[in-house]
Amino acid sequence: DTAVSQTPKYLVTQMGNDKSIKCEQNLGHDTMYWYKQDSKKFLKIMFSYNNKELIINETVPNRFSPKSPDKAHLNLHINSLELGDSAVYFCASSQVGNEQFFGPGTRLTVL
Amino acid sequence: DAKTTQPTSMDCAEGRAANLPCNHSTISGNEYVYWYRQIHSQGPQYIIHGLKNNETNEMASLIITEDRKSSTLILPHATLRDTAVYYCIVRPDTGRRALTFGSGTRLQVQP
């Protein structure tokens, strides 16, 4: 009965490849987020979706494209991966204004 | 969102209370104080939040000063599993705001 799940947990790939990370929440929340935690452990918001609509899009390269097929899913697609994209990516969900529930993270390593 | 200041690290003996301070001197009237923690390699976990009054739940207590410029998170009986990075975050409770994480306090619970 995992609340927020992400797949895969680990992702190792070569520079220049395109990859996707999937996120699903079974909490019935209407808002989902993607955060990036870099090697210095700083957590930063990347995107936020509310009812399948993009509401926050921080300064993120346009190689990153979120896709929300429905309220329970928010996937992150990354084109032309670069070394600097190596990080842990966390998905989260919340009901508007309430506390956020985070997934276990996806550790992306770009070689 | 208002900026927060936390000590970089703290130690606490197992079974004792852990008191984690946070300064948020520029907090606005409509901003809440949220606490999250991140146990190593896991996603952040919501702990507690409050506006003016002190709050308590099964995990912790939150003490907010009368002028709301600072707060203290109290873990009443710290265990080794409470070893984590604790983040104090200030944000409005309305709208669809993402969380702005600082560097947090690394709490080490000692046996």
SSE arrangement:
The complex is a heterodimer of chains A (111) and B (111).
Chain A: E1 4-7, E2 10-13, E3 19-25, E4 31-37, E5 43-50, E6 53-57, E7 64-70, E8 73-78, E9 87-94, E10 101-102, E11 106-110
Parallel strand pairs in A: 2-11
Antiparallel strand pairs in A: 1-3, 3-8, 4-5, 4-9, 5-6, 7-8, 9-10, 9-11
Chain B: E1 9-13, E2 18-23, E3 31-38, E4 45-50, E5 55-56, E6 61-64, E7 70-75, E8 84-92, E9 105-110
Parallel strand pairs in B: 1-9
Antiparallel strand pairs in B: 2-7, 3-4, 3-8, 5-6, 6-7, 8-9
Can you give a write-up of this model?
By secondary structure, chain A is an all-beta fold. Chain A has strands at about 5, 10-15, 20-25, 30-35, 45-50, 55, 65-70, 75-80, 85-95, 100, 105-110. In chain A, the strands form two sheets. In chain A, strands 2, 4, 5, 6, 9, 10 and 11 form a seven-stranded mixed β-sheet that branches. A four-stranded antiparallel β-sheet of chain A has the order 1-3-8-7, with no helix packed on it. In chain A, strand 4 and strand 5 form a beta hairpin. The radius of gyration of chain A is 13 Å and the shape is globular. Chain B has about 110 residues and is mainly β. Helices cover about 0% and strands about 45% of the residues of chain B. Chain B contains no helices and nine strands. Chain B has strands spanning about 10-15, 20-25, 30-40, 45-50, 55, 60-65, 70-75, 85-90, 105-110. A five-stranded mixed β-sheet of chain B has the order 1-9-8-3-4, with no helix packed on it. In chain B, strands 2-7-6-5 form a four-stranded antiparallel β-sheet, with no helix packed on it. At the A-B interface, strand 4, strand 5 and strand 10 of A face strand 4 of B.
